From TrEMBL:
<dbReference type="InterPro" id="IPR045357">
    <property type="entry name" value="Aminopeptidase_N-like_N"/>
</dbReference>
<dbReference type="Pfam" id="PF17432">
    <property type="entry name" value="DUF3458_C"/>
</dbReference>
<feature type="domain" description="Peptidase M1 membrane alanine aminopeptidase">
    <location>
        <begin position="224"/>
        <end position="438"/>
    </location>
</feature>
<dbReference type="InterPro" id="IPR037144">
    <property type="entry name" value="Peptidase_M1_pepN_C_sf"/>
</dbReference>
<keyword id="KW-0479">Metal-binding</keyword>
<feature type="domain" description="Peptidase M1 alanyl aminopeptidase C-terminal">
    <location>
        <begin position="543"/>
        <end position="857"/>
    </location>
</feature>
<dbReference type="Pfam" id="PF17900">
    <property type="entry name" value="Peptidase_M1_N"/>
</dbReference>
<keyword id="KW-0031">Aminopeptidase</keyword>
<dbReference type="InterPro" id="IPR012779">
    <property type="entry name" value="Peptidase_M1_pepN"/>
</dbReference>
<dbReference type="InterPro" id="IPR027268">
    <property type="entry name" value="Peptidase_M4/M1_CTD_sf"/>
</dbReference>
<dbReference type="InterPro" id="IPR035414">
    <property type="entry name" value="Peptidase_M1_pepN_Ig-like"/>
</dbReference>
<dbReference type="InterPro" id="IPR014782">
    <property type="entry name" value="Peptidase_M1_dom"/>
</dbReference>
<dbReference type="InterPro" id="IPR001930">
    <property type="entry name" value="Peptidase_M1"/>
</dbReference>
<feature type="domain" description="Peptidase M1 alanyl aminopeptidase Ig-like fold">
    <location>
        <begin position="443"/>
        <end position="538"/>
    </location>
</feature>
<keyword id="KW-0645">Protease</keyword>
<keyword id="KW-0482">Metalloprotease</keyword>
<dbReference type="InterPro" id="IPR042097">
    <property type="entry name" value="Aminopeptidase_N-like_N_sf"/>
</dbReference>
Length: 858
């Protein structure tokens, strides 16, 4: 598409139901790498036989139409409108009919990995959001649902599709999916695969065959995915009362995949990095993520598949809810406080960043050009936060009742956010009109808290006065106040809690809440559990933060106090002011607190990242200097290490986990604390401990941590060579190898190192994981990406332009590296804008990348 083509936006307000109903979709595939034939028979009928409507089918580039027939009679020259196929109302009967179509497609030429493509000799599909139209002409929209019958012809040994298997003979397999579904949930896999299998009996006694399919040689690394699946199935029965509904559940791991994984009905397809794990090759974080994503895709069976979205504007209906569910699952299985802190960290790093820049959009957008650009942290993670707030406001019991009603009322339907909110209104009698703003209004609210203390003879009185305001975002200038649940607790001067957690419900722009009968002025623990995705500011000194870090009973608020202390020290240093030593002192006390969970202590010991510091400075109206931030953070880490060298060294030794590796939360938490200590100690031991650990570690978690430390100390070469020699054939480990060299590189050399790595023959850039490892690695090196000479921007833009021609989705997604450019100094802004303009001017730029770049420039 040329840059002069006018962008075509889609609007929520334009929704209209599809004028035809689809009773059955029959598909037949004759697979061949360069010329796959797809025959379809769509059993259609007019929604309103009295209304004469054209039948419009979506199509994509790369479809070669062979033939089209209506009830067996050929339609010789159907009308084409762009990539669509239109059959005029006058040529359609006012009764049910069958539209048959045959097309030819070229999976081998499909480097965008959307539709049917080849990955390492294996056929696979990705149809969300609009990939099915690259397979055949079809009403490719989520509100058109049908049962599917699929025949696959191929000599490959494994032939899979959705639903239950109904026929298998030489060179042919037939599948039937009885549950009506939209085309985006269609999947097909064909290849030379091996399987690990298990069997699951549902609560009501249905036997289900579970299979995880991988490439030959990978089967020893698929066990954790299978165990995770069984845990997820059990949990969804116990907590949400949801059972699985087919005879088989298949998971397939593929090496070339644009995203993490996909919830196709009965046939989930996964990026292999979210299936394959062994202690030797995967880190604790990889294991945790595999468990979470396996669960996420499985949970979609009810929240996404049985109840799907009416249109793509409603994406958060399935994604926000499914993320919320997978977060609950991980909290239940591992540590709830640690999970909450991890989630908030991720939310701030990705979603707050998005919400504060040119790409800000509501959880439910009302306009898009390319829907694939809206699989964002806002739709997913903020979408989950909004559900968490709703649950907090209505209470756990009402939440459970509302969900039961949702499943009852909307099973088999394509629903909307209005439907979702209505089940809560009907269950609780609450009016959720104001709450709905969380879905329709973009931007992160700022919440300011002021304390007013009045001593009195009959007890003191504390008033908390809150003000909220949400800064403008693209297309939304004025934001009315929202409902904000603010969880608050009070702690007495002796450290005891004097008022347990209470949720204040703020609905006005300015509102006060009063606590009476207090003996002495308490310390306020505010926004406990991060009860709302807002930026809270208050007048508080470092001594009070240190007090909260020592005494708060809410683990999130406790961690937050420590983090605020660190940020206060870092901001002072990054702006050339002297910092008080409260953080260094307080963090030592916490590290030594053996009553606290090691994983929690590890989180407290980990300093805020450079990006987070930059975001905080920008939010306060300052211009962040990436080099000064980098230096300040290094400096604070050294101070902590020097002040607590003996303690950290003891921790490092004590947290070693003896015996066989287990990815469970307990041992993983000990390793996390050990690694946090190592990271600090490396600043003063020159990397000696890291070198020993790299040579002796029996697991990838410690090995990678040691490698990263070594690279940061400029002594990573031997370790990198050793890792490469040992794992040259393991793509997932080599992705880490590429990535760590750039993330841990000295900022002034990061872009040059990335450029050298990109020259390597094993920089297989068309593989999304490898591309992300390198480009994402650079973007994660804050001072490296934002290097003053623009080398980071240029390198990234060069590669995004190259990638765009092969895989627009990946290019567009990675372009978010630029989304924070407006916060930096004029020189950097100029360089970043020049890079963005260069991309915008590219001949043949995709709709995906064009939309992203133009939103960022605007
Ligand atoms: N629905 C999937 C994510 C997904 C979205 C788009 C894809 O291709 C463009 C692939 C996967 C999930 O939430 O896991
Ligand atoms: Zn999802």
């Amino acid at each position: 598409m040329s840059p002069t083509t006018a962008p075509i936006a889609q609007y929520l307000a334009d929704y209209r139901p599809y004028p035809f109903l689809l009773d059955l979709t029959e598909l037949r595939f004759d697979l061949a790498p360069r010329g796959t034939r797809v025959q379809s028979a769509l059993h259609l009928r007019p929604r309103d036989p009295a209304a004469a409507e054209d039948l419009v089918l979506d199509g994509g580039a790369g479809l070669r139409l062979i033939g089209l027939a209506l009830d067996g009679t050929a339609i010789p020259a159907p009308r084409r409108e762009g990539e669509r196929l239109v059959i005029a109302a006058a040529d359609l009967p006012a009764r049910p009919f069958v539209l048959s179509c045959e097309v030819e497609i070229d999976p081998d030429a499909n480097t965008a990995f959307e539709g049917l493509y080849l990955s390492g000799g294996m056929f696979c599909t990705q149809c969300e959001a609009e990939g099915f139209r690259h397979i055949t002409f079809y009403p490719d929209r989520p509100d058109v649902m049908a049962p599917f019958r699929v025949t696959i012809r191929s000599d490959l040994p494994v032939l899979l599709s959705n639903g239950n298997p109904v026929r298998r003979e030489a060179g042919l397999a037939e599948w039937h999916d009885p549950w009506p579904k939209p085309a985006y949930l269609f999947a097909l896999v064909a290849g030379d695969l091996v399987v690990i299998s298990d069997r699951y009996t549902t609560a009501s006694g249905r036997a289900v065959d579970l299979n995880v399919w991988v490439r030959p040689g990978d089967q020893d690394r698929a066990g954790y995915a299978m165990e995770s699946l069984v845990r997820a199935m059990r949990w969804d029965e116990e907590v949400y009362g949801r059972e699985y509904d087919l005879d088989v559940f298949n998971i397939v791991a593929v090496d070339d995949f644009n995203m993490g994984a996909m919830e196709n009905k009965g046939l989930n397809i996964f990026n292999s990095k979210l299936v394959l794990a062994s202690p030797e090759t995967a880190t604790d974080a990889d294991y945790e993520r595999i468990e979470a994503v396996i669960a996420h895709e499985y949970f979609h069976n009810w929240t996404g598949n049985r109840i799907t979205c009416r249109d793509w504007f409603q994406l958060c209906l399935k994604e926000g809810l499914t993320v919320f569910r997978d977060q609950q699952f991980t909290s239940d299985l591992r540590s709830a406080p640690v999970k909450r802190i991890e989630d908030v960290r991720a939310l701030r790093a990705r979603q707050f960043r998005e919400d504060q820049g040119p790409l800000a959009h509501p959880v439910r957008p009302d306009r898009y050009e390319e829907i694939n650009n809206f699989y964002t942290a806002t739709v997913y993670e903020k979408g989950a936060e909004v559900i968490g707030m709703l649950r907090r406001l209505v209470g756990d019991a009402a939440y459970a009742r509302a969900l039961d009603l949702y499943f009852d009322r909307h099973d088999g339907e394509a629903a909307t956010i209005e439907d979702w909110l209505r089940v809560f209104e009907d269950t609780t009698g609450r009016d959720l009109a104001q709450f709905k703003r969380w879905y329709t209004d973009a931007g992160t609210p700022h919440l300011e808290m002021t304390e007013i203390w009045e001593a009195g003879s009959d007890g003191g009185r504390l008033t908390l006065d809150f003000r909220q305001h949400t800064p403008p975002t693209p297309g939304q200038d004025d934001k009315p106040p929202r409902v904000i649940p603010i969880a608050v607790g009070l702690i007495g001067p002796n450290g005891d809690e004097v008022a347990g957690t209470r949720t204040l419900e703020m609905t006005e722009a300015r509102q006060s809440f009063t606590f009476e009968g207090l003996g002495a002025r308490p310390v306020v623990s505010a926004l406990r559990g991060f009860s709302a995705p807002v930026i809270l500011s208050r007048q508080i000194d470092d001594a009070t933060r240190a007090f909260l870090l020592a005494h708060d009973t809410d683990p999130f608020a406790r961690w937050e106090a420590g983090r605020d202390l660190a940020i206060s020290a870092l901001l002072a240093a990054a702006q050339g002011r002297a910092a008080a030593g409260d953080h260094v002192e307080a963090i030592g006390r916490l590290a030594a607190d053996e009553a606290a969970d090691p994983a929690f202590r590890a989180l407290c010991l980990t300093l805020p990242g450079e990006e987070e510091i930059a975001a905080r400075l920008a939010a306060g109206g300052a211009v962040p200097d990436p080099d000064a931030i980098h230096a300040a953070r290094e400096d604070l880490a050294r101070q902590v290490a020097e002040a607590h060298a003996a303690l950290l060294s003891d921790l490092y030794d004590a947290m070693a986990v003896p015996g066989a590796y287990s990815p469970d939360a307990g041992p993983a938490g000990r390793r996390a604390l050990r690694i946090a200590a190592l990271g600090l100690l490396t600043r003063i031991d020159g990397g000696d401990r890291a070198e020993v650990l790299f040579g002796t570690a029996g697991n990838m978690t410690e090995r990678m941590a040691a490698l990263s430390c070594l690279i940061r100390r400029g002594r990573g070469q031997a370790a990198l060579a050793a890792l490469r020699d040992r794992f040259a054939d393991n793509r997932l480990v080599m992705d880490k190898w590429f990535s760590v060299q750039v993330t841990a590189a000295p900022p002034d050399r990061a872009a040059a190192i990335a450029r050298d790595l990109a020259e390597r023959p094993d920089f297989d850039w068309k593989n999304p994981n490898r591309f992300r490892a390198l480009l994402g690695g650079l973007a994660a090196n804050h001072a490296g990406f934002h290097a003053a000479d623009g080398a980071g921007y240029d390198f990234t833009a060069d590669w995004l332009m190259r990638m765009d021609a092969a895989n627009p989705q990946i290019a567009a997604r990675m372009s978010t590296a630029f989304e924070t450019w407006p916060r930096y100094d004029a020189a950097r802004r100029g360089l970043a804008q020049a890079a963005l303009r260069r991309m915008a001017a590219m001949e043949g730029i995709s709709r995906n990348l064009r939309e992203m770049v133009s939103r960022m420039i605007a």
